[in-house]
Amino acid sequence: MKKVPLIDCQSLAFSTRLAENRMGQAQRIFDPGVLQRFLCYSLYLFGVNRKTIGQALGIPPETAKSTIKTINRDGLIALEDRRQQSSVLRPQVRPQPQPVTLREEGSQIIVDFGIRDRVLKLNRQDPLQVKTILLAMLNSGLLKNRQVAEVLEITPTYTAILARRLDEQGAVSLLDQRQGQKQDFRVPRQVKAEVVQQFALDVITSGRTSGRAISAELKERCNIAVPARTVRHHLAQMGLREIKESLPQLLAVVKKTSSNCSST
């Protein structure tokens, strides 16, 4: 490390006029307290004793001693008043943005950015729109794989595949190329009845359900194989998604009314 040469202060010429002008300029840049601590440490480096430093700057010797000790320990940031909230010397800590969250409201998927009145509403009945926007947000780091996979009702692995496909090939790559996509997902009436029954059971008992959950429950309870995408299609066609929130509330009202009638 290069050694700083000692300065013979006695050989220096000091100008009162220049000092006043320069101090005036410095006070327009630095807070007076910062400037005082800067001068205190400078005089200390020139070899002035602490008592004389205090007398020259109009501060107690103990204050000069404490200032010098703090600067030796903490460096430049000790020049500032740490009681102040803002700082030009201390590293600025940027507030962490609120995480983006997803929730369902009826037939809509709500993308909440954590800022008042800043939400994005997606129509569940437009699956290509939902996929494109959520996967684009995943690729941009705004959403996590798990969040998108849960809303799209697919596995996290397949979510990553679709996100990469969107990034490399564009939105057209998300179109379902299977011929079955063009059909009306025809299922027997009794299977539709089981779908409706399972939907109602799930919503009443737990307050929520999904195409994937209904598909799995029908397979286990009735040994009926209905793909989750087919379940979602028929729920949308019959308008059942719109009553998912209101059905448990309506049931509670009906139970309360029935109970009141029975007691009278």
Task: Explain what you see.
With 264 residues, the protein is mainly alpha-helical. It has three domains: 20-79; 101-175, no CATH class; 181-256, no CATH class. The protein has helices at 16-29, 32-45, 50-57, 61-74, 127-139, 145-152, 156-169, 189-206, 211-222, 228-237, 246-263, and strands at 101-105, 108-115, 118-123. A three-stranded antiparallel sheet has the order 1-2-3, covered by helices on one side. Strand 2 and strand 3 (118-123) form a beta hairpin. Helix 9 packs across helix 10 (228-237). It is elongated and about 105 Å long. The chain starts with 15 loop residues before the first helix and ends with a helix.
Labels describing this entry:
single chain, 264 residues, mainly alpha, 3 domains, three-stranded antiparallel beta sheet, 11 helices, elongated
How would you briefly describe this protein structure?
By secondary structure, this protein is mainly α.
Set out the fold topology.
Blueprint: H1 16-29, H2 32-45, H3 50-57, H4 61-74, E1 101-105, E2 108-115, E3 118-123, H5 127-139, H6 145-152, H7 156-169, H8 189-206, H9 211-222, H10 228-237, H11 246-263
Antiparallel strand pairs: 1-2, 2-3
Major sheet: 3 strands, antiparallel
How much is the radius of gyration in Å?
36 Å
Q: Outline, from the CA principal axes?
A: elongated
Mean pLDDT: 79
Q: Hey, roughly how much beta strand do the residues contain?
A: 5-15%
Poorly predicted regions are: 179-183
List the secondary-structure elements in sequence, H or E: HHHHEEEHHHHHHH
> How many individual β-strands?
3
Kindly name the structural category.
mainly alpha
- Count up the helices: 11
The N- to C-terminal Cα distance equals: 95 Å
**Into which percent range does the helicity of residues fall?**
40-55%
